[in-house]
């Protein structure tokens, strides 16, 4: 297990390096001069050159990257062009809200997905199976930003039960554990949970179906085990794979929440990202994406290790 | 089978005359690295083929036998360049591979028939296309014509089979296709790697007869790899025995059948069911699995399973040498080497 | 797979006289029998054809608005599906909208299919250092959830059709490369590749004649399964305002501009999303149908 952990950690390093290079390159591929956003339009050539030198933009790319990474290591992700606040502060507040949303969606999606998938796998080729399969394919085909709008139309506009925007009353940005804030969480979390429900259900259905037809399950019945015992065995065997799919989905929820946050004006990283894009706030864009990607990498790592802990066979590969 | 039309078999011309071996293999080595650990470094070497040497004369059939994992198939793949050798020389009719002979030219002269008749045929290609492929690659004229004539020659009616796919054929039919495919390049040497092992006994006999006919008709030389001693005896002129990547014994069929000089060969033969109840060997069969080729035993590699082992066997590697009674019967065992230092050196294997 | 069956003594067993069937003929036959898949195919063809031939369908001008006819409800005289926030005919805009939406939603997968297959087959067949370089680079892109990567690149490049195509193509190259590599290394280890190499054929000939034909269908099926996600993402970029620019009709963009109307005419504002949903559902079902017709297992 320790050797596996070390191997896995070593594999993460080049990936993290690659992620940082891609995030660094994002600013380079952006059209126009990064200075135009901060320089007055009538700046002279000398002023521009001075500014360029001040920001280190006159140095070769590799040097610029090294400086950028060096600052990152000290927790300095630069300043937001739009607000002037440090990018790190902006990002971490927003990522917190996104994590809350993603986690809530996961809490809704995973039990439902596992339950439906198991039901379909157990009652394979019955009407239950067909209904779950149809529902899950519908779920993964739904553009969730549209689903969010439809849910707003039903529950906010027509029924007036739930708020349609923001994370709390009066444009509250910070989460508080009270009913008013919870009410704001329901619609975005439900919207976000639909795609992972479909994917988890599909995966679990395939797993349960495959395992139930395997020889060893017959052997368990033959040994005189009860139906519940057999189910427990099957569940444990499917757990590792199901867990990895769910872990991956948790990561995708973080990425996928960007569109949903825009629909619901949820003050998370996605909302921050779309603001950064419209204000051409490249340091903020870069910082947000870097943090989200590294979070995703870390999540994958945790999932892999957890999976290996449950199923020792994985450690050998 | 009725007289067949001329299939246009045109092998490359003989250069060295009948006395020059068609293929000469010297000190062939292939180690496969085993990676592991956190950084995936090479941690060990599987010594699949370790210093194998032999000759095959023109028109001869050499049978290679041994347990699975002894390096038979790796040897075959090295001979045709499918696996790159680490060391050693392959000399085809006097021309050394890599010096005067290119890999492509070697493959014009040497072809191979594999064990799994289904896996060796591209499932998306018709039989005709599969057979013609090699001839086209080698730039021979009219590859399709050649393919159809060869299909007919190996007993598959081209009108019926040419446009079929591999899954529509039986195992025996597919192996005929594989033979036709190998012959489509007009090779002089054909390596048959367990080519009949997967077939039913009756089909196996048909294919063996076909191989014998083809050898006579086209002047072929065979290297016939199998674990089935009876089949090897039927088709071979000489038999080579491998153990853990090394040659332990080479001898003409009659000679080795009469007297197995190496304790390993003897055990191998004794494991074979005999038809004659009076002629059963009393030799106990081999026990246990062959040792791990990653760390083969020192000295004589067979000493861990040998009934006659002495201290010298653990330290000194025996050399392949001709028996005093018959120089063509070669064996690598201290029992036969008077100077080896074995307590019973020079006495041969006790009966 | 197939076991040896008894043969007649001369090996010339009578062959069944039916015409030997190639792989693709079988796939076509199975597809034709799959009603759901054919229905999805029909809906998609209808969407594509109506988008392509929109100018000849006698529709209203999708760009011409009217200040007095804004947000007319569905079923209004002269506006069968109502009008949008600028008084433009919704039916015309939805049909014309299919042009850009489907183009940007499908083409990136097509591009990524060619590029990813090339990289994956190369990595899988050649192996060694080439494989390491290609696949480790691909791993880095897998560190980004696809939505995030698409938004990051599009956000940096800025809005525009070309930029959307570029960013979405980049998003779908890594998964296709990974599948192509896995399938190719599987095929590479099969005996018939060895048999083909043993003829003296060079790598390029072996890849062209023996590898491509056997890896393309699983890669293709996998690529089709990505089209639905690509559609949703492409429209999502426009929805965020970093895809197609106004006033072009495009479903994602229309969904965005109509958001202001959800309190006035809610169901009208949901229509463009309905189109995205139907298309993506059909693409998913079609891909599933293809998978089973082509006998591709995951």
From TrEMBL, chain A:
It is found in: Cell membrane. This is ABC transporter permease. Residues 95-307 form the ABC transmembrane type-1 domain. PROSITE patterns: ABC_TM1. Keywords: Cell membrane, Membrane, Transmembrane, Transmembrane helix, Transport. The chain crosses the membrane at residues 9-30, 99-123, 144-162, 182-201, 238-264, 284-306. It is a multi-pass membrane protein. GO terms for cellular component: plasma membrane. It comes from the Bacteria. CDD domains: TM_PBP2. It comes from Marinibacterium profundimaris. Belongs to the binding-protein-dependent transport system permease family. PANTHER family: DIPEPTIDE TRANSPORT SYSTEM PERMEASE PROTEIN DPPB-RELATED. One of its GO terms (molecular function) is dipeptide transmembrane transporter activity.
Automatic annotation (TrEMBL), chain B:
GO terms for biological process: peptide transport; transmembrane transport. Residues 269-296 are annotated as: Disordered. Its EC number is 7.4.2.10. SMART domains: AAA. GO terms for molecular function: ATP binding; ATP hydrolysis activity. It is found in: Cell inner membrane. SUPFAM superfamilies: P-loop containing nucleoside triphosphate hydrolases (SSF52540). Pfam families: ABC_tran, oligo_HPY. It catalyses: glutathione(out) + ATP + H2O = glutathione(in) + ADP + phosphate + H(+). It comes from the Bacteria. The complex is composed of two ATP-binding proteins (GsiA), two transmembrane proteins (GsiC and GsiD) and a solute-binding protein (GsiB). Belongs to the ABC transporter superfamily. Glutathione importer (TC 3.A.1.5.11) family. This is Glutathione import ATP-binding protein GsiA. It comes from Marinibacterium profundimaris.
